[in-house]
Amino acid sequence: MASVEDLSARLRDFAAERDWNQFHTPKNLAMALAGEVGELLAELQWLTPEQSRSVMDDASAGPRVRAELGDVVIYLVRLADVLGVDLVVAAFDKLADSERRYPVERSQGSARKAPPTRSTG
Amino acid sequence: MASVEDLSARLRDFAAERDWNQFHTPKNLAMALAGEVGELLAELQWLTPEQSRSVMDDASAGPRVRAELGDVVIYLVRLADVLGVDLVVAAFDKLADSERRYPVERSQGSARKAPPTRSTG
Amino acid sequence: MASVEDLSARLRDFAAERDWNQFHTPKNLAMALAGEVGELLAELQWLTPEQSRSVMDDASAGPRVRAELGDVVIYLVRLADVLGVDLVVAAFDKLADSERRYPVERSQGSARKAPPTRSTG
Amino acid sequence: MASVEDLSARLRDFAAERDWNQFHTPKNLAMALAGEVGELLAELQWLTPEQSRSVMDDASAGPRVRAELGDVVIYLVRLADVLGVDLVVAAFDKLADSERRYPVERSQGSARKAPPTRSTG
Q: What is the pLDDT of residues C25-75, one digit of tens each?
């Protein structure tokens, strides 16, 4: 089964073969990531939240959403590789913070207690 | 070693325990993802591309960048879980497209041939 | 009454007085703009579309949304000044395109005919 | 000379004539704004900061950047109209804050003192 590590290695080769490492600075890759996330938003912007739950069932929009997610992952994994960050470990560390800040018993179904709109990084 | 699947499962539990699935529509999660990517951009916006290459060596900015990446991964993995998309497979599929569109011999070190600014998704 | 031109001039002075023009490249300013838009999204991400219609009535969120809009305008106006683009004229030109592409009689209340998810540049 | 108010009024008519107000919630418009900012980033992502300073001189990229700026303005002005926020006043208020936080004498040409990466909104 393909892993993030496999993807990261193949993206590294892809860039090296084309001599694109010169363009793959963290700054540039973060911009590319944001551009792809913008395209993902565009697919969902006119849908209601409920409609968005079934977007993958749409024969036209579904594949587009999947392709945009693929693009997002590509730039995110490439960015993390260039920075030397293990994405999954970074996410688990951040999640551990959230588990402390949002104790189950005090965070029941409240929009106020929904994930903070700004990370405390 | 922790995998994307492990993370996805733990995020699913995290949301369910807090009764937050009601907020976790693809539309909302895509917005949260974009918000976190915005915070990541903010860490890199005043750096030169070259400075951004060594941002992880900065005792102050490095951990912030890593934390923002963690947040990005959290919302991306949660979004993919809600949509039923395998992120790594979606990325490999998209990469196969790019390999066809950017043949090695015709894409040498040219900014023009750098990854397209818009996916053809 | 304060105009975009007044704001643009004052932002120019603000940057010059602090010797910040060196940081105010279009690339950097576009990143800063995107970062501020990310903060705006974060204010709206957990609201339903209907709830978002009355966000300005919320004593806590309303001023935050207004402040984020102010930040977005600041970087957008600064970016346009550095690029030498008249924002209002550029918007009118783009709107004229949309009026041609979305004739009134064929665009009635249909999500399909809602503004395109990708500009045609 | 065309003003933001003129543009706002024409966008209001444009939406009303097509019965699109139903889609123009602040949440949806903020997503559309972010999508357009993403397209703007995509135009600049592989350029160096210096190259980005002359992007408007490029016969191909220049008009695209201008068109993306037009799209950004359209959604930003529409969003502000729906929220009832005066964009220019909101920006001047935010700028007054920044003038207090970044006194001229203590903010000379220092990246550290560059505009904060997070608004204190």
A: 999 999 999 999 999 999 999 999 999 999 999 999 999 999 999 999 999
Q: Which residues touch C110 (CB under 8 Å, ≥6 apart)?
A: none
High-pLDDT (> 70) share of chain A, %: 90
| Residue B88 vs residues A84, B59, D119: alpha-carbon distances, Å | 19, 31, 34
Q: Give the dihedral sign, CA D10/D12/D13/D17.
A: positive
ipTM > 0.85 for the complex? yes
The helix (H) or strand (E) run that includes residue A56 is: none
Rounded to the nearest 10°, the torsion over CA B69, B23, A4, C31 is -40
Question: How many Å from the N-terminal Cα to the C-terminal Cα in chain A?
Answer: 32
Q: How far from each other are the two terminal CA atoms of chain B, in whole angstroms?
A: 32
* B42 contact residues in C (CB cutoff 8 A): 31-32, 35, 38
**Contact (CB<8Å) A43/C114:** no
Q: How far, in Å, CA of A28 to CA of D48, rounded? A: 9
Q: Which residues of D15-28 are buried (b: 16+ CB within 10 A; e: fewer)?
A: beebebeebbbbbb
Size of interface A-B (CB pairs under 8 A): 243
The closest CB to that of A73, out of B55, B70, B87, belongs to B87
Among D78, D108, D34, smallest CA distance to B38 is for D34
